[in-house]
Amino acid sequence: MNFNVNPHNLIYSDLVGLRVRVAASTDPTHVGVTGTVVDETARTLVVSAGGREKIIPKISSSFAFCLPSEVMVDGSSIAFSPEERLKRLQRRRM
């Protein structure tokens, strides 16, 4: 579990292990998928939901992460690899 993740640094954090709900998507079969992020690529989140893994494209979706309150995130703001998001955070702090 990512204990230091908060609404201010979520988009720069490792998302694996976080609870998530797909709030909106261009694919109606993805809307409402709820589970735990088990893997992440630059363009997708892999969500374990109901014993199955679902691959959700980031760019065409919006997500609600539970931190413990829900934090809404537009998929386009996290449509980078975890390493690239960390680099962006480091640049932002300079």
Q: Nutshell version of this structure?
A:
The protein is mostly beta strands. It has a single domain, classed as SH3 type barrels (Roll), CATH 2.30.30.210.
Name a few traits of the molecule.
mainly beta, globular, six-stranded antiparallel β-sheet, 39% strand, SH3 type barrels, 94 residues
If you had to describe this structure to a student in words, what would you say it looks like?
The protein is mostly beta strands. The chain has a single domain, classed as SH3 type barrels (Roll), CATH 2.30.30.210. Helices cover 13% and strands 39% of the residues. The protein has 1 helix and 6 strands; from the N terminus they run ββββββα. The protein has a 6-stranded antiparallel β-sheet with strand order 4-3-2-1-5-6, with no helix packed on it. β3 (44-49) and β4 form a beta hairpin. The chain is globular. The chain starts with 18 loop residues before the first strand and ends with a helix. The model has no long low-confidence stretch (mean pLDDT 88).
Strands, count: 6
What is the CATH class name?
Mainly Beta
The overall average pLDDT, rounded, is: 88
CATH architecture: Roll
Overall helicity: 10-25%
- The CATH homologous superfamily is called Ribonuclease P/MRP, subunit p29
What is the CATH T-level topology? SH3 type barrels
The biggest beta sheet is recorded as: 6 strands, antiparallel
Low-confidence runs (pLDDT<50, min 5 residues)?
none
Oligomer: single chain
**Domains (count):** 1
User: Radius of gyration, rounded?
Assistant: 12 Å
Determine the strand fraction and express it as a percent band: 35-45%
Number of DSSP helical runs: 1
**Protein structure class:** mainly beta
Strand order in the largest sheet:
4-3-2-1-5-6
Shape: globular
Q: Kindly, what is the distance between the CA atoms of the first and last residues, rounded to a whole number of angstroms?
A: 28 Å
Order of helices and strands: EEEEEEH
